[in-house]
From TrEMBL:
<feature type="region of interest" description="Disordered">
    <location>
        <begin position="20"/>
        <end position="42"/>
    </location>
</feature>
<keyword id="KW-0443">Lipid metabolism</keyword>
<protein>
    <recommendedName>
        <fullName>Phosphatidylserine lipase ABHD16A</fullName>
        <ecNumber>3.1.1.23</ecNumber>
    </recommendedName>
</protein>
<dbReference type="InterPro" id="IPR054518">
    <property type="entry name" value="ABHD16_N"/>
</dbReference>
<keyword id="KW-0378">Hydrolase</keyword>
<feature type="transmembrane region" description="Helical">
    <location>
        <begin position="96"/>
        <end position="116"/>
    </location>
</feature>
<feature type="domain" description="Phosphatidylserine Lipase ABHD16 N-terminal">
    <location>
        <begin position="3"/>
        <end position="152"/>
    </location>
</feature>
<keyword id="KW-0812">Transmembrane</keyword>
<feature type="compositionally biased region" description="Low complexity">
    <location>
        <begin position="32"/>
        <end position="42"/>
    </location>
</feature>
<comment type="similarity">
    <text>Belongs to the AB hydrolase superfamily. ABHD16 family.</text>
</comment>
<keyword id="KW-1133">Transmembrane helix</keyword>
<feature type="domain" description="AB hydrolase-1">
    <location>
        <begin position="281"/>
        <end position="408"/>
    </location>
</feature>
<dbReference type="Pfam" id="PF00561">
    <property type="entry name" value="Abhydrolase_1"/>
</dbReference>
<dbReference type="Pfam" id="PF22990">
    <property type="entry name" value="ABHD16_N"/>
</dbReference>
<comment type="function">
    <text>Phosphatidylserine (PS) lipase that mediates the hydrolysis of phosphatidylserine to generate lysophosphatidylserine (LPS). LPS constitutes a class of signaling lipids that regulates immunological and neurological processes. Has no activity towards diacylglycerol, triacylglycerol or lysophosphatidylserine lipase. Also has monoacylglycerol lipase activity, with preference for 1-(9Z,12Z-octadecadienoyl)-glycerol (1-LG) and 2-glyceryl-15-deoxy-Delta(12,14)-prostaglandin J2 (15d-PGJ(2)-G).</text>
</comment>
<keyword id="KW-0472">Membrane</keyword>
<feature type="transmembrane region" description="Helical">
    <location>
        <begin position="60"/>
        <end position="84"/>
    </location>
</feature>
Amino acid sequence: MAKLLSCVLGPRLYKIYRERESERTPPGVPETPASGATPSASSWDSYYQPRALEKHADSILALASVFWSISYYSSPFAFFYLYRKGYLSLSKVVPFSHYAGTLVLLLAGVACLRGIGRWTNPQYRQFITILEATHRDQSSENKRQLANYNFDFRSWPVDFHWEEASSRKESRGGPSRRGVALLRPEPLHRGAADTLLNQVKKLPCQITSYLVAHTLGRRMLYPGSVYLLQKALMPMLLQGQARLVEEYNGRRAKLLACDGTEIDTMFVDRRGTAEPQGQKLVICCEGNAGFYEVGCISTPLEAGYSVLGWNHPGFAGSTGVPFPQNEANAMDVVVQFAIHRLGFQPQDIVVYAWSIGGFTATWAAMSYPDISAVILDASFDDLVPLALKVMPDSWRGLVTRTVRQHLNLNNAEQLCRYQGPVLLIRRTKDEIITTTVPEDIMSNRGNDLLLKLLQHRYPRVMSEEGLRVVRQWLEAASQLEEASIYSRLEVEEEWCLSVLRSYQAEHGPDFPWSVGEDMSAEGRRQLALFLARKHLHNFEATHCTPLPPQNFQMPWHL
């Protein structure tokens, strides 16, 4: 009877993975996750096959879940319509509640029938036995057996807790239950006294900004958190997970962040391979509709690196909602997991981000200054110009206030706090982070990210002459134009390197540098163009085109 109840209340089982390479490796032999692993024909045919009763009951419950999600998003309009028609009176609400109660009882009955169908299936009974054993005792053997199943991630036991990283000191900005530290925007009216009257005047605007951010704004900014989109992408996500687990021996884990958010991660270990880049861990930060199952994780993976992918809060197996504070909390526990559980030193960790993932990548770089390098692909400097681009001009004040107070993705400000190597990849046909049209490459906000970084690190070089020549170089829309500008200015790379190395040897590596202070205008132009070319690479593609592995390169450093 207890097993039947477990089957009724248990999670949905999606897939049973085929035997993986690591399980066939004799003890003492190093694992080689991707050493020529060729998937068999059954690699994509190992989905769990439910019995008819479970299958039909699952279909009914899934349909009910979709209708509930649609009702949730349309509820404000529905309530307004019912109110206008007079359907919210007590005499009409009571019968409706009876209908709703009957429907809930019917769905509960369907769930019980599904449990009976699971109970008659020996595969599901074996799975639920392993899951219960793992919750009681998280031994390595139980975890190994549980990793052979792909099921509703809400029932996966927590593998790493944010408090396990006990060696982190509060002086470094260690997390508390309220969350990690973020850079806060400066007040719009710095000199105004914040009296009670001023607070009352601001209250309507603050309430409006809060409502916009927590309803329309968050879903526009992170469409991947919308349940209906995730439901539509579910088959693709399951296939992506199967590829990572079966072909690359990926290891899934659940991390608990300081705010209680559960983060879904996937780790592929290449340290046992002959390739030297396998000793480096690349932490991948996905875009606003990206998931590690099908996202930018494939680029460093195919390039031979160890990889740690994770899903934003509210995406796929991760819980919570993707606001900046939650995003930073999630990134913090991911980095802590990489250091304290996976055993990578910060000097061996590279953070790679695509698009909106630049926010968490730059936060990690700012908060963990010993990280080896940062690579930002198709990212931007600040969210406000991009938000203003898609909203009416009459909403400018509301949009700016809402972004600054609730959705402040200040990538450039955070990146300037990092002292290590940085590489920016600009898409020359990017249609998302341009503020006009894709053909106008100068409206690409990646340009502003580069300029702000160089102006912070090399303020004397990026004076009027340096700024002008870098802008000319950024106008180049092809490699031929780029090379033409570079050769026309006759940049002497050896001279630029010698100047920078001499300054570093004398003054140390910490930015900002005063190099170029006593330099001629021609010297500053050469140095500015040299630095711009080292920090930004062009990729002739649109925003969502996957980055080829050969374009994934480590940033330049002296």
